[in-house]
Design brief:
The chain is mainly alpha-helical. The protein has a single domain, classed as Single alpha-helices involved in coiled-coils or other helix-helix interfaces. It is about 80% helix and about 0% strand. The chain has two helices and no strands. The mean pLDDT is about 90. This is Protein translocase subunit SecE. Its main location: membrane. Keywords: Cell membrane, Membrane, Protein transport, Translocation, Transmembrane, Transmembrane helix, Transport. GO terms for molecular function: protein transmembrane transporter activity.
Length: about 55
């Protein structure tokens, strides 16, 4: 493991990276939020079904 080689590759990646625009950030946040809500709703539906089925 050569530290100078890895460090230079990390620096190269950081130089290429840029902060997202507000529109891009907003779109990613909306998609992530929708995914979180979808997973939560699926979990709640499974919980509700399991609580109504006796002996499950």
């Amino acid at each position: 493991m050569e530290i100078p080689t890895e460090l230079s590759s990390y620096i190269r990646v950081l130089k290429l990276a840029s902060t997202p625009s507000w529109e891009e950030f907003s779109q990613v946040a909306k998609i992530a939020g929708a995914g979180i809500l979808l997973v939560g709703m699926i979990g709640f539906l499974i919980f509700a079904i399991m609580s109504f089925i006796p002996g499950a």
